[in-house]
Sequence to fold (584 residues):
Amino acid sequence: MKNKRKNISVEKTGDDAYSRIVDAAPNTEKTNKPKKAKRKSRVLIVLIILLSLVLLVLGGMGVAGYMVTSQDANFPNVFIDGINAGGLSRSQTVKLLEDKGWSERVGGELKVSIPGDVSFTLDFVTAGAEHSAEQAAEAAYAYGRSENILNNLFTYIKSYFIPVDVDMYEKTLNDDYIDASIDRAVTLMERETGKTGHEVDKENCCMSMVKGGGEIKLDEALLHDTITQALKDGRDELEFDTLAQTLVAPDFAKLYAELAVEPQNASFDENFEIVPEVIGWSFDVEAAKKLWLDAEPGEEIVIPLQKSLPEIDSEALRSLLFRDKLGSQTTYYTWSSANRIGNIKLAVDKINGYVMLPGDTFSFNETLGQRTEEAGFRSASAYNDGQVVEAIGGGICQVSSTLYCAQMYSQLKTTNRVNHYFKVDYLDYGMDATVSWKNPDYKFTNSREFPVKIVAYCDEENSALTIEIWGTDLDGSYVQLRHTSEPVYDEEWTETLIGYTVRGYRDVYDAEGNWLKTINEPGGVYYFHEEDIQWPPEKEAQEKELLEGALDVLEELEKENAEGGDGGYLFDPDEYIGGYDIYA
Fold:
């Protein structure tokens, strides 16, 4: 049997038309299709409704989130270090904090100490470790406000149930402020600890140095981190000395070799200028090492110095010069003429203050120079070839003779000395020294260890000439003068005494009076003045006969001259060479 298919007419009027389609033949698949379509349609409707509701809710929440975010008030239950600032505006929050004494709660400082005795402070508020009232109010207002207004809404709702203290939150530190403070302090530290080497303070007997001077480099990155943590911990003090490199101790043994000296006495150079003394210095090397190890970087280390003084310093040595009067002599010129006294004073001025170094020889003629009127000398009585005459410079032999005595008492070496032809009336035998230009000269040598100085002066009131020799007496020894004499007889009249041969001696004794030695002085013959010689009568008769013969010769000469002869002298005065100008 054949199935019959009915013709179906369909009006395309939508889903309802589709539902009215009837298939004459039974078909299960075609029968279920309308039912599935209906279910899908209902689901879609539900989804649309739900989506609309979600959008409506989200829109409402967005509006609510915007409203809570943009309001000029803190979220509920927002506290600042225990102070409830919920619902307040920023200005109200600032006033509340001020009323609660916020300025007393904050504003502390962190003091940071680094090497070189350098310290600096960081303000907690400026560093960001604490909030000012304004900053705290801003933090309270910022709580719960972000770019996501829905999150802001949830935080707002949550704050009703869960209070929050914004001061407990981690604060953002001001790294620029911290680094700038570190840079300034490090610059100061490097200046304070930049002194290299060592300094010796002899006045205070010490040597100083800076540990690591010029080499101290801090680990600045670690210093920054350490300061950051100290700010977070609320500390008020911090000491930091961690270096970027290890310091190397000085070579104290080498330093000792450079500094340590043995004391040396002051001395004289070849010109008897003082060579200053050397003070001895030393220090304990091991003690210096320990001081360095115990010191902090940048700390000044003071190392004691041991001072050793020499036995003789410059002042003591200088005090030795011309300290002692070694010898002196005074003679008198009571009955001298004005010219003679003037010559004596002029000679005194020329030798006064004369200094002789050890080994120097004094020459009377070289010191005074030639005695001339141009030089200021005057004519006065003098001995000339056994005669008393007037001569330029007469009287200066009293100066040379007085000096000779002072020289002998001073234990200086006689180099050249000649006695007068006659004994002088101002000194005993063997104590005089005659001079004339250019010879004889009087000379003596400084045979002592120290310089000597001649001090000469005249006492006009007492008509006295005094000459002293000053130097350095090291042993206290002294001199006594004496002389011996032997008679001198005339060669022809051998029993007639015409003078004495005199020898002078210096007897030297130690400070306790014990004889040490005797020094022989140059001797010489002293003749009597003619009127003081006791000639025998036979000599007088002989001289009378010779005189008469001479008179006869003169008469003959005068007679020849009267008769037209060439006359002339018994001798040529220009060829005559007389004796020395020996000034008495």
